[in-house]
Design goal:
Layout: E1 4-8, H1 16-28, E2 32-38, H2 39-48, E3 58-63, H3 76-87, H4 89-102, E4 110-114, H5 121-127, E5 132-135, H6 140-147, H7 149-154, E6 169-170, E7 179-180
Parallel strand pairs: 1-2, 1-4, 2-3, 4-5
Antiparallel strand pairs: 6-7
Helix pairs in contact: 3-4, 4-5
């Protein structure tokens, strides 16, 4: 029995392709992949026929979800709320139940979700006794600096709102080159 990963990208530009590249890499190591998407993204991928020879081991499924249009920054709350309703924990729980009900030999063995899709998924993973991994689709340096931002605040390098205390080039983390304060990802 091959390991079976349920991959859940954020259904947005810049998130699906890196997750698909991870899927291809996992397939090359013997995994079966179920790749969950929104209906419109699912249809665009199939229309483009971009799955090549790995198609047999990558199963594309979708749920009826679409982001509402983003007219302004005030619309972000509506988009997050619709994302939770359309692709949140209750939907993922149902997807896993459906897959496992029809797959006697290939039940889901792990969940890999875009870091922005992990809200509430630990409870679902625990319920199904599955490991959950968060996948960050952007540069690892962006993840590192976000991850250590609280530490940078405690060191006195950043204010509690994330704004650097000095407007100069600074080595924020030992693993990264010095950055100008304006290069921080949230500024």
């Amino acid at each position: 029995m091959a390991p079976h990963a349920l991959l859940i990208p954020l259904p947005a530009q810049g998130h699906i392709n890196p997750m698909m590249q991870l899927a291809w890499k996992l397939v090359s190591h013997g995994f079966l992949i179920t790749f969950l998407n929104s209906d419109s993204t699912h249809n665009r991928i199939h229309k483009a026929n971009t799955l090549n020879s790995f198609f047999d081991n990558i199963r594309m499924i979708s749920v009826p979800f679409e982001f509402p249009p983003l007219d302004s920054l005030e619309g972000i709350e509506n988009r997050i709320e619709s994302l939770i309703k359309g692709m949140g924990p209750s939907v993922i729980d149902k997807v896993i139940q459906e897959i496992n009900a029809r797959e006697e030999e290939n039940k889901v063995t792990c969940i890999i979700a875009d870091v922005w899709m992990c809200f509430g998924l630990q409870a679902v993973a625990t319920l199904h006794e599955l490991p959950l991994a968060a996948f960050h689709t952007a540069l690892v340096s962006l993840f590192a600096i976000r991850y250590f931002s609280a530490h940078l605040v405690s060191l006195g390098i950043l204010h509690s709102d994330g704004i650097p205390k000095e407007d100069k080039k600074t080595k924020y983390l030992p693993c990264m080159p010095a950055l100008h304060s304006g290069d921080l990802p949230w500024l």
